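Good day; I would like, with your permission, to put a structural problem before you. A protein sequence and the structure tokens that stand for its backbone fold form the material at issue. I would ask you to consider whether the tokens describe a fold that such a sequence might reasonably adopt. I set the record out below, with my sincere thanks for your time.
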Amino acid sequence: MTNRVEVFEQMLEADPENTMVMFGLAKEYEKLGENKKVILILEQYLSRADDEGNAYGVLAAAYNRSGDREKAIEVYKKGIDVSMAHGHPSMANELQLVVRTAGSPEAMAGAVARKIRSLNPEIAIQTTTLETMVSDSVAMPRFRTFLVTTFAVVALLLAMAGVYGVMAYLVSQRTGELGLRMALGCAPGGVVRLVLARALAMAGAGLVAGIGLSFAGARLMAIFGVRPGDLGGYASAALAIVAVTLAAALAPAWRASRIDPAVALRGE
């Protein structure tokens, strides 16, 4: 199958003066990292076409990647002049200057802005710090992470409330049985273990069902970056569920261990 580069090369061979084909071929060479070919084609293109600045930006980037920084600056400046002459200072708007300073970046920003305005007062200047740029770039991912974490915490709290309610109900329903066990010599610790074991059995049943469903919905989970064989994810989720279950069942278990056998038997 013929690739795009070969198609453009064949088109240019058939029509060597076609500037649109030249620019298209240069962009394909740029994708492949063929900087020397980009420079060769664009130099030919700019000698024939009335470019409005775009090709100058591509050519300057190719010179810069090739290590010829001085030539890159020269071409970029010419591109700015050309784009300004055509009434759209796109290249000037896209120019970014990184300045490293030992002092305060905010204090240096004013001096840099004044120097640039002395060269071309028509250029609009916007200054920022690297710290601000990094913070802005991660603002949305950070917000999404915060949102997901908040929902996860709410889900865990709801799960704890549900487990607590179920275990409190079961303890109230088994008050007589637990009182009888204690009357027959069962220690309070044994009652706590009995209640916690029941809670863990419920959690285990839920884990088996949940893991089974997760494997069944593996394609859907892949959207969120969870692989079907992601044992770390499954293990962390299982540990979280066990921890939440134990935490929620502790209060009912402690209350069950404080049952007075005489009162419980009298109630029966």
